[in-house]
Amino acid sequence: MQTILAIETSTELASAALLRDGQVITRESAGVQTHSLAILPMVQSLLAEAGISLAQCDALAFGVGPGSFTGVRTACGIVQGLAFGADLPVLPVVTLAAMAQACRDLNGAGEVLAVLDARMGEVYWAQYRFAANLWQVVVEPTLSAPVLVSPLAAENGALQACGNGLTAYAEAFATAPFAAGGWPAVMPNARQIAQLGRVALAQGLGLSALEAQPLYLRNKVALTIAERAAKVHP
User: Fold this and answer.
1) Which of 14, 84, 134, 216 is most exposed, with minimal Cβ within 10 Å?
2) Structure confidence by residue, pLDDT tens digits, 174-183
3) What is the pTM of this model?
4) Per-domain residue ranges for the chain?
């Protein structure tokens, strides 16, 4: 079985995972300010525990976004450096898809709405359906106001909503049918990045280090002074 090393730094939790012989071992570190410092030691720890070198991995996977600008850039840059040095393919995995996989790991969900807090009064969201042993994208990753989150009708079981966007904008989602029974604690993690990376590698979707780029859905990282004032004094 293929060996996949994965990292995820798109949110406040940085994580790394090594998928080998069908087993996953992980490391985690909280605190967005330390992601760039924490990831490489976690990677070294994983490789040491497995008793292998980076060159013995088959590919490197990373959370491509959407998420924190700094976070997705950090993951992309680290993976590019590691992949270039070890001559390994890179597997970009959408963070919202990783959340869908986490839901499936927890309760076998076949229809998932992933909602991630994008700050600035908005959320990143996407809808996924598991069919024929693969995830299908029902609604592509989208940036919108919480009230504009509009999943399509589920076809493969009940729709499972997840992600911290559900609690960050709880008032906006108060009357949304999908919010009841949602799992706000489900967030992007390297464990699922590794799992989906293995699927992508089997599909021949590996990229060169130079081809790997972050997925951005927003063109700016903060509100202007005027925009912040407008939100306080509508």
Assistant:
1) 134
2) 999 999 999 9
3) 0.92
4) 4-95+188-211
